[in-house]
Design a protein that fits this description.
Elements lengths: L4 E7 L2 H13 L7 E6 L9 E5 L2 E5 L3 H10 L3 E6 L3 E6 L1 H11 L9 H8 L4 H12 L3 E7 L1 H12 L5 E5 L1 H7 L1
């Protein structure tokens, strides 16, 4: 399996993750390399539905306005109901990785479909546990994958946006950790 370089940042709020996406766009980072994953609702909100129109996702519900900004910038979107995590919205290359994992029935040490998708993008198993825990606590994951130079550029931008956590994952580090 091809393992890309990746940087993953965890944000406490949707607004923090969205601000980071905007900064990455301003810095010239290719939006096709960005993925975001987070819960689409909070306990006091309910999604009524969602649909995908081309590369833009439309949703109804309390969080619809907040998520709308992402769907205009990122490519590919999906809604998943993940046991143990709950309803999750995802956009970007992570969607294809999750679907591929589901279709191939990939199981990575008991990880969820989100975890299997992250693993497919080169994220080591020990880090996946932390990212799934972040999702369970209503935090947001922002992932940029690609060649080493592009990922380093993205990491430098992301670090300025004050994420809760930011980690660089490279094939060499994955091989050493795995």
């Amino acid at each position: 399996m091809k393992q890309d370089n990746a940087v993953v940042a965890v944000y406490e709020t949707h607004e923090g993750a969205e601000a980071a996406v905007k900064q990455l766009q301003l810095a010239g980072v290719d939006m096709r390399t960005l993925s975001i994953v987070g819960k689409g609702t909070h306990t006091d909100e309910q999604v009524v539905g969602y649909y995908n129109t081309g590369d833009r996702m439309k949703s109804w519900g309390g969080a619809g306005a907040l998520w709308g900004g992402f769907w205009g910038l990122l490519f590919g979107s999906a809604f998943f109901a993940i046991p143990g995590i709950g309803p999750v919205l995802a956009a970007g290359p992570i969607v294809a990785a999750i679907v591929s994992a589901l279709e191939g029935a990939v199981v990575v040490g008991g990880a969820s479909a989100i975890g299997a998708g992250l693993f497919g993008l080169g994220i080591p198993k020990d880090s996946i546990i932390n990212y799934e825990a972040a999702l369970k606590t209503d935090q947001y994951l922002l992932l940029v994958s690609g060649n080493a130079d592009d990922v380093e550029k993205a990491r430098n931008v992301i670090e300025l946006t004050r994420p809760v956590n930011v980690a660089l994952h490279t094939p060499e580090l994955v091989g050493a950790a795995g």
